[in-house]
Design goal:
The protein folds into 3 domains: 58-288 and 305-379, no CATH class; 468-669, P-loop containing nucleotide triphosphate hydrolases (Rossmann fold); 686-750, no CATH class. Helices cover 43% and strands 8% of the residues. The protein has helices at 12-29, 52-74, 87-92, 129-136, 138-144, 162-186, 193-196, 229-232, 244-268, 339-354, 360-374, 378-387, 397-401, 406-412, 425-442, 445-452, 457-478, 482-490, 500-508, 526-533, 546-558, 582-585, 588-600, 650-657, 689-704, 717-727, 739-750, and strands at 36-39, 42-45, 48-51, 212-215, 218-223, 238-240, 514-517, 538-542, 563-565, 577-580, 603-608, 637-642, 666-669. It has a 7-stranded parallel beta sheet. Strands 1-2-3 form a 3-stranded antiparallel beta sheet. Mean pLDDT is 78; it is low at 229-233 and 294-326.
C-alpha cells in the first residue's frame, strides 16, 4: 500500500502506480546487455553481419530500381536501364518545381495537400496528366484500350485491357513496398512499424492531418504516432526527411500516379456497385485494428509469407483482355498494411541486398549504433536519446530567460501562422538535422551538394578526411617495389616490356594526364592492374568492348584484384577496380557514384582503354563516347591507353579529348607492329565475294586444324548475319542480343573444342 495526496486513503492502485514509477526509474537508469559490435566498418548484431559499403550499395541500388520502375512502368516515360531519362522522356516528364513550392501544414480542410495550394504553379495538371497521355498517345492507347479507334469513344463503356491494368497495379504495389523500406531506412532514425503507417499524403475525411509536407524545398514525412500514445494519450510528432533522391519518387507518385489510378477506378468500376471513396490518404494504408494480424510485434521473427520479393500480386499471365464491361473491381480494393507486412518487406530487401534478414527491431538497434559511431554531432545524439526516452530535453537559455521552458515556448509563443498542430519550429529543425546527418553518412549527392554550399566544421572535416586518405595512399604507392609487385602478379621470371616501367612510374607518381601507345599484347592492362593491386582506392577503367571487359575481369580476379563490372542497381562502393562502358561512364548514375568515391577520398584514377575509338565515329556509331572528354573535369589522374593511335592522329586526339598540349602530357609510345601477324590482300569479284570467302575459310580450317579459331570481320550488321549463316558460325555484333547472350557467344569463341 502507498500514500495518497491530501488526506486521501491509500488504495491498491497507489501501490501499483508507485511500483510502476520505481520500475521505470530502474529501467531507464540500468543499461542493457551489449548487442552490437564493430569490426572496422562491419557491424555485428546477433546473426546479422554486413558492411557499411554494402548498406550504401543497398540504398543506391534500391533507389535506382525504384526510379526505373516509377518512370518506365508507372509514369510510362522513356528511361534507360540506368534510370536516366532519354531526350524523349525528359521532354515528356514534367519537372518538380522544388524551389518554388510552398505549403501550409496548418490547413485542416479534408482532402487538402500541397497540390491544392493555389500558390503553387505546377507545369501540368497532375490529376489528368497520365489520362490525357493515354488518350492522346497512340502507343499508350493501344496498351490500355481494346478498341480499334478513339473516335467517339465513351470512357464509361470502353473495353479496357485487363492484363495491362493488372500489371500496372502489380507494379504499383511493388513500388509501394520498395518505398516503404526506403522511407523507413533512409529518412533518419527508423521508427516502429505503426509510425510509418500513419503517414498521409493528404488530409483525411475524418479530421486526420497529412504527414507529407514541403519545407524549404524538401519533403518531410511526419508521423503522429508514438510508442507512448496508447498509455498517455499524448501525441508526439516526429519529422523525418527523406533524401531528395527518394523524395522525388514519392512526390511523382502522389502528384501523377495516384490521381490517375483513382480516376481509372472511378470510371471502370462496375455500375451499381457500392460507392467508392477513392484513393486512400495514406501512403501505406493501415489495416483496421479488427483485421490486424501481427500488431506491434515489430521485433518478432515471423516467417516470410509467400509473396514475391516485392508486391506479391498474383501473376497475370494467361489473362484475356476484356471485351465488354469487365468486372475488375478487385483491382481497386484497398492495399492494406500492418507492421508484419512492413517487417517482411524489410527482411526480404535486406536478404537480397545484404545477404542477411534484418527486421524492424534489429534495424533500430543497428541504425542507432551507426549514428553513434559515424555521426559525432552532439545535438544529433541528444535528439536520438530523447526519441528513445533516455534523456531530457535541454531548455535553451533565451527561453529560460523569458520565464518558460523550450517546450512551452514552442507550443505557445511566437508560433507561425502555418505551424501545424503539435509541431514546433525548434524540434522540426532538430529532426531535420538528424535526417541530414543520416543522408551525409550515405553520401547522397543531394546532401553532399547542399553541404558543399555551407561553411562549417562538418564540411571542413569531411574534406580533410578525404584528402588525408588520398595522401596516405599516394605516399604508400610511391614506395612500391614495382618489379617485386610485377613478379608477385605474373611470376618470378616476369620482366617489364617496352615503355611499361616508365609509364608505371608516372602513374604511381600520380602524374596526369598519361597517354600510353603500346601494341596489342604488349602489356597495357598491367598499367592499371598493378597500381590497383597496390592500393585500397578505386581505379575506374572505361572499356568499350564486351570481350575486353570479360577478359579483364577474369584476369583481375586471378591476380587477386577485387574487380566488378558496373551495375547501376548494385553499385559496389569498396572494390579496387571497376569496369564500365563509355555510355555508362558519362551517365548520371555513374557520375553520382564517382562523386561519392571522391567524397570518401577513394578515387585514384580513371583509365580509358582503347581510347582511339573517339576518333572513329562514322555514321554516329556510339556517339556518346565523345562525351568522355567530360572526364577531364574530374580532379583525379587520367590515363589513356591504346594500340591504334597513329602519330598523325595525335593532335586530333588531344583536341577531341580536351587535353593540354602534348608537352604537358606524360606521353609514352612503343612500337605497335606485331611480328606474328602478316597481312595479305586478295582481289575478288564483288558478286562472288561470299562464295570466295567461304572457300577461303574452308582452306584455312584445313591448314590450321579443327582446334583453330577463325574470325571474319564485316562492315555491316547485315553482312555479318549473312556470312554467319553461310559459314554456320557464331554471329556477334552490337545487336546480337542481351549482355548475357553476347557473353555466351564470347565464351563459345574462346572455348577449346579439343
Amino acid at each position: 500500500m502507498g500514500l495518497t495526496s491530501k488526506g486521501g486513503r491509500p488504495s491498491p492502485m497507489d501501490f501499483v502506480l508507485r511500483l510502476r514509477t520505481y520500475g521505470m526509474k530502474i529501467r531507464y537508469d540500468t543499461t542493457e546487455e551489449g548487442l552490437v559490435d564493430w569490426q572496422g566498418e562491419r557491424v555485428l548484431f546477433g546473426h546479422i553481419d554486413f558492411t557499411m559499403s554494402a548498406l550504401r550499395g543497398m540504398a543506391f541500388g534500391m533507389i535506382q530500381e525504384c526510379r526505373v520502375l516509377l518512370f518506365r512502368s508507372l509514369l510510362m516515360v522513356e528511361v534507360t536501364d540506368d534510370g536516366e531519362l532519354t531526350k524523349r522522356g525528359a521532354a515528356t516528364l514534367p519537372v518538380i518545381p522544388w524551389k518554388d513550392l510552398v505549403d501550409d501544414p496548418a490547413q485542416r480542410k479534408p482532402g487538402w495537400s500541397v497540390f491544392e495550394d493555389m500558390r503553387n504553379k505546377f507545369p501540368v495538371n497532375g490529376k489528368t496528366w497520365l489520362w490525357d497521355r493515354i488518350w492522346n498517345e497512340d502507343e499508350l492507347f493501344e496498351q490500355f484500350v481494346d478498341t480499334p479507334g478513339k473516335e467517339e469513344v465513351d470512357a464509361t463503356v470502353i473495353a479496357w485491357r485487363e492484363k495491362r491494368l493488372r500489371q500496372y497495379r502489380k507494379d504499383k504495389r511493388q513500388f509501394d513496398e520498395m518505398t516503404s523500406v526506403l522511407s523507413h531506412m533512409l529518412s533518419g532514425q527508423g521508427g516502429r512499424g505503426a509510425e510509418i503507417l500513419t503517414i498521409q499524403h493528404r488530409n483525411g475525411d475524418n479530421n486526420t492531418i497529412r504527414g507529407m509536407v514541403i519545407e524549404d524545398g524538401e519533403m518531410a514525412l511526419v508521423a503522429a504516432y508514438h510508442k507512448g500514445f496508447g498509455m498517455s494519450g499524448k501525441t508526439k510528432v516526429i519529422h523525418r526527411y527523406p533524401p531528395r533522391e527518394l523524395g522525388e519518387l514519392l512526390f511523382y507518385d502522389t502528384w501523377l500516379v495516384r490521381p490517375f489510378w483513382t480516376y481509372m477506378g472511378t470510371i471502370i468500376r462496375t455500375p451499381g456497385d457500392q460507392p467508392w471513396e477513392g484513393d486512400s490518404p495514406y501512403f501505406w494504408e493501415p489495416r483496421p485494428e479488427s483485421q490486424e494480424e501481427s500488431g506491434e510485434a515489430d521485433d518478432g521473427e515471423d516467417e516470410d509469407d509467400d509473396e514475391q520479393v516485392y508486391g506479391g500480386e498474383a501473376h497475370s499471365e494467361g489473362l484475356q483482355d476484356s471485351t465488354d464491361h469487365p468486372n475488375m473491381d478487385e483491382l481497386w480494393e484497398p492495399d492494406l498494411w500492418d507492421s508484419g507486412r512492413l517487417r517482411n518487406a524489410l527482411k526480404r530487401a535486406t536478404l537480397r541486398w545484404l545477404g542477411v534478414r534484418v527486421n524492424i527491431m534489429a534495424w533500430r538497434h543497428i541504425s542507432i549504433a551507426i549514428f553513434r559511431r559515424w555521426v559525432f554531432d552532439k545535438q544529433v545524439q541528444r535528439m536520438i536519446d530523447e526519441d528513445e526516452g533516455h534523456g531530457e530535453e535541454v531548455d535553451e537559455a533565451f527561453n529560460l530567460q523569458a520565464g518558460h521552458s523550450s517546450r512551452i515556448a514552442g507550443n505557445i509563443y511566437g508560433r507561425m501562422l502555418s505551424e501545424a498542430p503539435f509541431h514546433t519550429q525548434v524540434r522540426r529543425a532538430a529532426f531535420r538535422k538528424v535526417s541530414t546527418e543520416w543522408h551525409l553518412f550515405f553520401r547522397f549527392p543531394s546532401a553532399i551538394y547542399a553541404q558543399a554550399h555551407r561553411v562549417g566544421p562538418w564540411a571542413a572535416k569531411i574534406k580533410d578526411e578525404a584528402m588525408d586518405e588520398q595522401f596516405r595512399r599516394w605516399r604508400a604507392t610511391r614506395d612500391v617495389d614495382l618489379k617485386g609487385e610485377l613478379k608477385a602478379m605474373v611470376g618470378a621470371k616476369a620482366q617489364f616490356r617496352g615503355v611499361q616501367k616508365g609509364a608505371l612510374r608516372a602513374i604511381m607518381a600520380q602524374k596526369s594526364p598519361v597517354v600510353v601507345v603500346m601494341g596489342t599484347g604488349g602489356g597495357k592492362s598491367m598499367l592499371f592492374m598493378l597500381p590497383a593491386r597496390c592500393s585500397t582506392g578505386l581505379t575506374i577503367v572505361v572499356v568499350p568492348l564486351i570481350s575486353l571487359r570479360e577478359d579483364l575481369r577474369d584476369r583481375c580476379r586471378i591476380a587477386g584484384i577485387e574487380c566488378v563490372e558496373w551495375d547501376v542497381r548494385r553499385p559496389h562502393e569498396w572494390v579496387q577496380l571497376i569496369l564500365v562502358t563509355p555510355e555508362a561512364a558519362v551517365g548520371e548514375a555513374f557520375g553520382q557514384f564517382v562523386n561519392r568515391q571522391q567524397a570518401y577520398g577513394r578515387l585514384d584514377r580513371v583509365v580509358i582503354d582503347e581510347c582511339h575509338v573517339v576518333l572513329d565515329l562514322r555514321g554516329g556509331w556510339r556517339s556518346k563516347i565523345l562525351e568522355l572528354r567530360q572526364l577531364v573535369r574530374l580532379q583525379t589522374q587520367l590515363v589513356y591507353l591504346t594500340a591504334t593511335l597513329m602519330p598523325s592522329e595525335e593532335r586530333e586526339f588531344i583536341r577531341v579529348m580536351g587535353l593540354p598540349a602534348k608537352e604537358k602530357i606524360q606521353w609514352f609510345r612503343a612500337r605497335t607492329e606485331r611480328k606474328n601477324v602478316t597481312y595479305r590482300i586478295m582481289e575478288c569479284d564483288r558478286k562472288r565475294e561470299t562464295e570466295m570467302l567461304v572457300d577461303l575459310v574452308g582452306r584455312k580450317k584445313v591448314q590450321y586444324g579443327k582446334r583453330s579459331k577463325i574470325i571474319v570481320y564485316c562492315e555491316t550488321v547485315e553482312q555479318t548475319e549473312e556470312l554467319a549463316g553461310e559459314l554456320g558460325a557464331a554471329c556477334f555484333h552490337r545487336n546480337a542480343g542481351s549482355k548475357e547472350h553476347k557473353s555466351g557467344i564470347l565464351r563459345e569463341l574462346k572455348a577449346d573444342d579439343g
